[in-house]
Amino acid sequence: MVLSKGSVADAVMASTCIPGIFVPIEKDNQLLIDGGVMENVPVLSLQEMGADFIIGVDLNAKQSFIKPNNIVEVLINTINLTLASATRLQTERTDLLITPDVSEFNLYDTSQVSALIERGYSDSKKKIEEVFQ
Predict the structure, then answer these.
(1) CA nearest 59: which of 38, 40, 33?
(2) Fewer beta carbons under 10 A from the terminal one: N or C of the chain?
(3) Reported pTM
């Protein structure tokens, strides 16, 4: 389900709803979970909306995994490995693919958000400059 109208808060809640960890959001008699489970880089959805040029961002491409310390981290690693496999197929249909190097970051440490944003910005800028110069 593509959420193109309605509550942004509900869309964000559904988008971050990792199965088995968070309770799904109910909308229109459907239970919504993180859309990345079905389409981590939503190329097909964008094509169906009529997008002419698709920029994909793959956060799994250069990701490293740490040894899990608990069952939640085991589940997250498992989900991310599954997503990485599916994402490789999805990103083949992008016109421009950005793959920020997030390998040095811990997936569970929210104190790194500012550094992650900066890395995403700098890696994206570098890729766009390479392609369009």
Answers:
(1) 40
(2) C
(3) 0.70
